[in-house]
Please model this.
Amino acid sequence: MTVRQLKTQEELDAYDEWISSHPNRSLWQSLAWKTYQESLGKDVRIYVSGTEKIDCAGLVIPDTTTLGLSTWDIPYGPLWGENVSAQTAEAFVTDVAQIASREKCISLYVSCPVRSLSVGKVSGRYVYPEATLIVDLTVSEEELLARMKPKGRYNIKVGQKHGIAVRESDDIDAFIALHAGTAKRDNFITPLSESYRHFLRNLEGSFLLFAYIPEKTDPIAGLLGVIWENEAIYYYGASDHAHRAIMAPYVLQWETLRFCKRKGAISYDLFGVTPNNTSHHPWAGVTAFKEKFGGQYVEFPPERMLVFKPAMHHLLNLKRKIFH
Model:
């Protein structure tokens, strides 16, 4: 198999058409994601195989660390054509792995959404969700509410009775401050502030919504999301713990569903819940919140990794545990 990196605009345009029509297409394999990651200073590559048409493809994000070493990600990829076998896809990953290994890569991570490939081993990371909930936005608003859990509908009504209003905004600094407080409260790691800025400014289809109460000018809950093609994704959420009793996040999610529906989205990805039959998962708390909005449960194969430098891989993981 011959793997090549796409270079010209003509090649990228052909890839864009291919990925947009793929049945397992995703934002994370799109040119929109490539543009966003490049705005963060990342060296994003798209590798493909096939001569006259694309057989297999993978958007790859190398992440450089010390001493010129790196880790490589293929988020929700690779993808392959209708008449292409999984074995061909595995050969594609093997070829990309050879390129990565030559370029001082410590480890390559593959989170294929279609099936578990027989390469490497399960990574155990929680960077890209292994399960999610997808809300169908083609139904009426009445049906959207009917498909929620009773507690979800009740909490929305509680928030509405407190006069919570939801408005679109471009005040990313307010979201960053709100999200920092949420992370400290719930003990999770946040990206660098610039990631949020570039997400809103450089990711096509991104949006920011805030929830307010009448007597305050500062938002008490925020949601950063994106609509790619006709698929909406809830990416980051934040809320002020001091106002937890008035259920602002529930009203915010409800108004986001309505917002995305008006924008032409046909689905809303709640982006990340605990996989079935999994105990003590770090996303258990947020899963209980998301489940109240209904949605179809979708599970993906676990992410796999190929490790080229075992000692450095161990040290890098140890460093991340210590400093995060």
About this structure: The CA atoms of residues 233 and 242 lie 27 Å apart. The chain has a mean pLDDT of 92. Residues 3-125+301-323 form a domain with the Aminopeptidase fold (CATH 3.40.630.30).
